[in-house]
Protein 1
Amino acid sequence: MDTDFLVIGSGIAGLNFALKAARYGKVVIVTKDKIEESNTFYAQGGLAAVFGKDDSTRLHIQDTLRTGDGISNRKIAEILAKEAPKAVMELKRSGVRFDSDKDGFKLSREAVHSRARIVHVSDITGREIEKVLVKKVKENKNIVLLEYHMAIKLLTENKRCIGCVMLDVKNNRTLPIFSKKIILAAGGAGMLYSKTTNPEITTGDGMAIAFKAGAVLEDMEFIQFHPTMLHNSSPSLLISETLRGEGALLKNKYGKTYMKKYHRDGELAPRDVVARFSTIEMKKTGSKNVYLDITHLNEEYLKKRFHYIYEECLKYKIDITKDMIPVSPAAHYMCGGIKIDEYGRTNIASLYAIGECACTQLHGADRLASNSLTEGMVFGTRLIGKIKKEIKKDKIIRTKIRDNTVYHEKNGRIKKLRKQLQNIMWQHAGIIRSKKGLKIAHIKIDKIKKKLDIIKNQGINKEILELNNLIRLAKIIIISALRRKESRGTHFIKDYNERHDNIWQMHLTIDKEHVKLK
Ligand code: SIN
C-alpha cells in the first residue's frame, strides 16, 4: 500500500493532523484497536486555553513553566499558549459542544493554573472530541482507515523513513505501507505500570519503534502520576483533577486533610507533589489509598458537572455527593518521548511525531494539567503547515520486504511477564525512586527480556510485540532515571535532593548509541 501521509495512532493529535493533511494528499490512518480507543477518549479535564477575562497568554506560559519545574522550553510554551485558543475554536466549529453560557466557555480549574482556563465538555471532554473527529475522518474520502493494525517496524533507507510494516492483528499477517511522510501519533505507555489511568493499548509502540529506527528520545525519566485514580477500579477510572479545581479535598484514612501541611497550594500543588505526598501519607497511615471529598458541593450541581464520574462511581457503590471517594495515584502521562522540533520533525527525515509519544520539551519535568490535548492539536496543525508543500515533490520509495514472519498463538506466559514488568516498574521506577531500586529493576527486567526472547524466537503476535516494546521503554526510562543525578518534577529520587542547574543537564536525550538495546 502507498500513501502520501501515513498516520500511526488515532487520538486527537493523529486525527486532527489526518483531517488537515487530507486536503493535500492521500492519508492512511493505522490504529491498533478500534479507532476511538486512545488516551484522548478517556481524557476528562479538557483543553487549557486562555479565554478568561482575567487570564493572559503570559499567565498560561508562566503556569506551564512553573509545573515543568525549571526545564520546560519557554519558546514552546509560548507557541502553545498563543495558538491554544485557535485550536479550541476549530474544535468548536467542527462540532464539539464545549460547556458554555452567554458569556462564552465555562472554564474550570486544575492544579497550578492561576486562572480558570480549562475548556471542557462536562467530564467527558476527550470522548466528545474523539467522537467528532472520528465522524469527520470516516466521512473523508481522502482518508483510508486501518483499524486493528499495529505498527511493528519503521522502514528506513539512507537515513530517511520510507514507511512502516504493520501487523494485521485480526488476521496475523504483515502489511508494508510506503509513504512520503510518516507521522507517529501513537500515544503513551501507561501499561508500563501496574497502576495506570491509561487503557490497555498504551504500550508505547510509537516511541519503541522510533527508537529502534534510530530516533532520539528525550526526557524519558519524567513519568507523570495522577494522584486520583479510583482505588482498585477495573478498568481504571480517573477522578479528574477538575474536582480538586472545584474544591475537593484530599483526606487520609482518619478523615484529615493533609496536602496543606506539605505544600502551600494544598490540593492544587503540581501533580508530582500531590502524588508523592499522597503516597507518603498512605505509608504513614498504613493505608493503600487516601480519599477525595467533594460532598460539600451542591448535589444537583455535582451530578451535572461530573455526570460521568458520578455514574461510574455509583457502579462501585460510591455516591460522590455523599461519600468520600477512595483514590490512589496511578501512572498517567509521559512527559518525554520522541525528540522533535517545534514542527514535529524528528532526527530522521520524513519521520514526524506529535501528541504524547513526542517530546516538544513543553512539559519539562511535569505537565500542566490539560496542556496535552491542546498540545496534540497545536503541534499537529503546525506540522501540516510545514510539510504540506513538500508532498508534491516528494517521491514514494519502496523496498522489497521479505516476510518470513512466524505467528505465535496467544500465550498465557506473556500476560504473566507483562504483569511482572508492571510490578517492577511500579515498585522501583515509580513515584519515589532510588538508585539501588532502579538498578535492581534493570536486572529483573533483563531476566524478563531473556524469557521473552525465547518465546519471540518461536514467533510473534500483538501481545509479544507489545511486551517487547514495553521492555525496551522500561529500560530506557530506568537508564534515563539513573543518568539524571537530581530530583526534579516527576523524577523524585531519594539519593539526590538538590538540583543541578547546569545547562547540559536540563534535558537528557537517549538513542541507540547510549544503550545496547535490540
Ligand atoms: C484530569 O482530568 O484530571 C486529567 C487532565 C489531564 O491529565 O490533563
Protein 2
Amino acid sequence: MSNKDVNRPVRKAVFPVAGLGTRFLPATKVMPKEMLPLVDRPLIQHAFEEAREAGIEEFIFVSGRHKEMLEEHFDYQPELMETLESRGKLDMVERVRDSEMPEGKLFLTRQARPLGLGHAIWCAHKLVGNEPFAVMLVDDVVLADTPCLKQMIDCYADVGGNMAAVMDVPRADTAKYGVLDVESENGQVVGIKGLVEKPKPEDAPSTLSIIGRYILQPEIFEYLGQFNKGAGNEIQLTDAIAHQIGKQPVNGYRFDGTRYDCGSRLGFIQANIAFGMRDPEIGTSVCDFVKKQAGTL
Ligand code: G1P
C-alpha cells in the first residue's frame, strides 16, 4: 500500500474517558478525573482545544459510569450566560463560549468494562467508521508553541499511516509506557520495527516511549476487534499498532514541547505550575512565587 492511500485527512478524534482516576482519590470520588482543573480549564477542555486547533471536527468520547459531567461541561449553559451578560462580564462570556462544543459535533459511546485502552478505542469503531482518526489521552498534557496534535497532523500530511507521539523517558520508567523498537530516525520521524507495552527496564528495546497522542488508520479496528489480551491482561492499543507494522507506515513522532503526566499527582502539580507561569494574567505572580519558594529550600 502506498503512503498516498493512508494519509487521508484526520477529521475525528477519540477521547477515552471511562477510567476511574484512583490516584486522585478522594478528589475523584464524585468528580471525573478529566474535570480536574489545569489553571482555569478542566483537563478534558485542554485536550478538546488541542484537537480543535489541529483541525479536528468531530469529538468522540468513550465514556463510562458517572462521567456525565464531561458532556455537560461542553453544553451551552443559558442561565450562566444570562447572569454573566447582565453583570457586564463580557470577558467571562467569551471564555465560557469558547468552552462550548460546536453543535452536532460531540459523539458518545460507552466502555462498560475496563478491559484496556485498546478496547476503549474499539468501542468507538462505529463512530469513527472507515477513516483515519486521532486518539487523545487526556492525562497527557503537552505544553508547546504549536499544539502537539497539530504538529503530528502536519507531519502526517507527508508521512501518512499510523503515528504515535514519542519521547525519551528514564530507563527506570519504561514499565509505564509503550516502548519503541527503533528501525530508523529521520529528523522527528522515527521508523518503528516493533512495539512493546510496559516492558521492564532490562527488557525495553529502547527508552523511546509513546505518549498519549496517536493518528491511526481504521484498519486497526480489525485487530482490536479480536480482543487479544496483552500486558496486564488488557486489550492493548500498542499491540494493535504493532500488528500494522509491515502493512502500513507506522512511525513515532518526536514532538516539540514538554509533556506532563497529569494522571499522577506530581505531574499534575508540575503542569499547573508550568501553565500558571505562562498565564497572561497571573503568570508573573506565579513566577515570583516559584522563585520565592525555591529561595526557601
Ligand atoms: C497508555 C498506553 C501506553 C502509553 C501511555 C502514555 O498507558 O497503553 O502505551 O505509553 O498510555 O501515557 P496507560 O498510561 O494508560 O497505562
